[in-house]
Amino acid sequence: MSIHYSKEWNWKEETSPIWLKPSEESYYIVKHWKENGYKDVLDFGCGLGRHSIFFAKQGFNVSAFDLSQEGISHLEKWAKDERLTIDLTVADMLSLPYNDNSFDCVFAYHVISHTDTIGMHKILSEIIRILKPNGEIYLTLCSKETWSFKDAGYPKIDENTVVKTEEGPEKGIPHFYVTLQEILKIFSDFEIERIRHTDDCYFAGKEQNSKHYFILAKLCKMSII
Q1: Residue ranges of the domains in the chain?
Q2: Where is the Methyltransferase domain (predicted)?
Q3: Rounded Cα gap, residues 159 and 81, in angstroms
Q4: Collapsing DSSP states into helix, strand and coil, what is residue 63?
Q5: pLDDT tens digits along 140-191
Q6: Are strands 206-219 and 190-203 parallel, antiparallel or unpaired?
């Protein structure tokens, strides 16, 4: 089975201002990583750059990539307006353009799920490669308990992955889903510090069923994949 390659987010279809504001979780992560003396951060799949700007303002050395040229161009202008230095590139998360042991930490917020099962293992091997020993990753993964996996009827391309078909910025983009036990297996090369399982049960003016795992983990393997 080959990897179902993803495609860039269509930002012309997305009008919510949420993508320009740091997530609430990022405030905790900034404090945690500062306390641990981390400096070099990769904003993994940065979108329009809300977290890149936030981390740079907090004094981190920030690198950022995204598959979308539109997103990178937006962030480039934003960083210039804020007089911030951020290393930017257009890249695919399946093949990262960074040297081994480049980063103290990786921040991957609502992005790493945009692949299939084979792609997920490839992406994690790339993250292990670019993280320094004892480096940390903070990421989100879609839960198999959520509506879009259980009940939406989206076509499945493997046992863990559906492709969204409705009109909007995510049309045609694969989404990989997990259970807690699958997370523990997938992240066997990491020391997991914390996993939260959340349910965004009401937003956009109506009841919803959108569940995600929020994972903080430290790389414990010393060897390079």
Answers
A1: 20-142+177-219
A2: 41-135
A3: 45
A4: strand
A5: 999 999 999 999 999 999 999 999 888 887 888 899 999 999 999 999 999 9
A6: antiparallel
Distance CA 182, CA 113 (A): 14
Q: Can you tell me the distance from the alpha carbon of 105 to that of 124, in angstroms, rounded to the nearest whole number?
A: 13
How far apart, in whole angstroms, are the C-alpha atoms of residue 199 and residue 222? Answer: 35
Give the single-character DSSP code of 157. E
Region of residue 110 (left: phi > 0; alpha: psi -120 to 50; beta: else): left
Cα–Cα distance between 37 and 52 in angstroms, integer? 18
- Angstrom distance (rounded) from CA 60 to CA 105: 10
| Inter-residue long-range contacts of 13-21, CB under 8 Å, 24+ positions, other chains counted | 13/167, 13/168, 13/169, 13/171, 14/168, 14/169, 19/47, 19/48, 19/50, 20/48, 20/50, 21/50
- In 10 A of CB 200, how many CB atoms? 12
Tens of pLDDT, residues 62-86: 999 999 999 999 999 999 999 999 9
- Distance of CA 168 to CAs 92, 161, 222, Å? 21, 19, 42
Question: In the numeric block, which tokens belong to residue 10?
Answer: 């269509």
Domain 20-142+177-219: CATH class, spelled out = alpha beta
Strands (E), the chain: 40-44, 61-66, 86-90, 103-108, 131-143, 156-158, 161-163, 174-178, 190-203, 206-219
